């Protein structure tokens, strides 16, 4: 089955909205073994949408549109699809009932009702979050057009609870893939280590880098999920062996989703003491559901007085070496650990920028310390002449803290110059 | 000038990477008054990329590709563009020099060198962050193909520092747009208030919703930036008047980028006391450069003991009403304010989920309190039967806290049931 995605929305062509929907749909199609060869974006313009739809229906068996199903005047997708397929719109009783339920005792705006009209012969997908249902519309030659709402909060549950199970019954071949995630390894370095693997056709091995992390995706296609998985497994093991302890996880979401379960397994706790990351590390740890067992408190000690008051960092030390120093980061980590009775303490102090540099301390310089009450480890992030911005610096510093904790728990070397 | 974007990368079609590049490029083109009618995605496949390029060059004057410029074997964009345009690749001295500088005293991997080869006649755009330069390649009929690297950290500075100024000299018409941002206003409600404005052609008025916020974009096109701005201004004022104090800012990034400058102006400070948001509010505040003047510390009091120790929330109160209660949220806000000597204190306590619900407290229930030392205000987020997930609940709760603070500073009503 060949598929393509048409994302509808002028806000996408103006760059006001990032097209996350296409990525969600693409991932779901890939897991179903549906080949996606085209994806495009078109504005809220009936004529151009019609041209895209007609071209797509010639090339592909399945066309998935995202966006343009809402109550407003520039929501045109359903009307345009119905016209291209020559189908009338009809009131859909179940969608009307859900729309009324959604509004409860609030009045239903008159512009809302058009959302309960669907092209004749459609299979409806209920919207568990918003008002506009999705639908699968039959087209000539056993082709299909599936219409999904634009807001990701509505599209995602509909895709996973409605569309994927429904499509799974229509498809045969299966794709399985695995993602090997590493920290502190360059893409070029990884490519050299994996060079003879990246030319393969089934499974394919691809490296890519995001936010300073490097990932390797191994993807295989076969008649069944089991056969595809059997093709992936040995290559995944080979990749992991070649990349060594840079690998922090396979098919995991991120560092925090590895570190929190590790702490849980060991029955250990962590207290964070953050200056330049300003709560980002605590936020990432508590992104993981169930973090409350291992994370009881975090201190955002942004000002020097807060470092002294909440962590007991000596005023004299702050005056002598400055807040952005190995000594203060170490002291923050040690005190986070000792004062708050945690197994582990992290201290982060640096200059996230864009302001705040001094003659000896450039923007982008961050010290990250980890303490277990006895030992204290330190990493230094130096900008190496290329300041990557405030958000990048903060995200990277929090990642280093998580990687240090991971490596310390596993007995691996922790310190490095980054 | 008509433009289109071709994003190159199998990871985009598999949904492993979200196509943020296209949004960045689209926004830049829009600001230059370049019409973007098409955007598409193609995998790392020379034949399909070639087909896309040939079609794009027929329809458009300017084709911008993103991705496929790196050192690895599946980076094919430059080679494919050169072949389609019939141009040889030539070593580019300045790019070679920069590549050598980038590696410094580290050895340059042999696979790196191809990045310093460009199609004959290209204008190079230096890569300030990575190794692959971009370039503008002349095509027949005064058309242009611009090649940009895929990683957003490389694409963004090249786009803004290199491509935009270079293209600005080639374009005439200008687009100006304004974004009115609101909080706690539904998209349907906004559309009814703005109905007679959304049909306009120049300026256009479009509403859209993301992450529970509702935005209105007003966009005008004219021969000069000044004329376009003059078309936008009166409509923007009309939109703001109709949406009233739901509007938290115009052409601002988010709530925190409004709240931090307001605090700065007033010479006031804030201390945060977070339970279920786990540092997210502190993180959002410290996302804003310069927050250190108004934000000295934040407490992430995830466990009950931490609420007692760091904020003095009475154990008796926690035992009697539970951590997720109006009383505890109020106490957290009051203590954050009083104990830490801040003008304002925020307390957030709730059940972000997916676990943690009780018979009387559903997942998604969050209490958000704000105190100025004298008065204390409270908001309640109730899931209304539809739990929107952990990330949404946390993000929304932090946004409510920021909106409460904004409204309190401006003397507007603060409390609501959300």
From TrEMBL, chains A, B:
CDD domains: cinA
Domain MoaB/Mog, first and last residues per copy: 4-170
SUPFAM superfamilies: CinA-like, Molybdenum cofactor biosynthesis proteins
InterPro entries linked to this entry: CinA, CinA-like_C, CinA_C, CinA_KH, Competence-induced_CinA, MoaB/Mog-like_dom_sf, MoaB/Mog_dom
Family label: Belongs to the CinA family.
Protein name from the UniProt record: CinA-like protein
Organism: Desulfovibrio piger
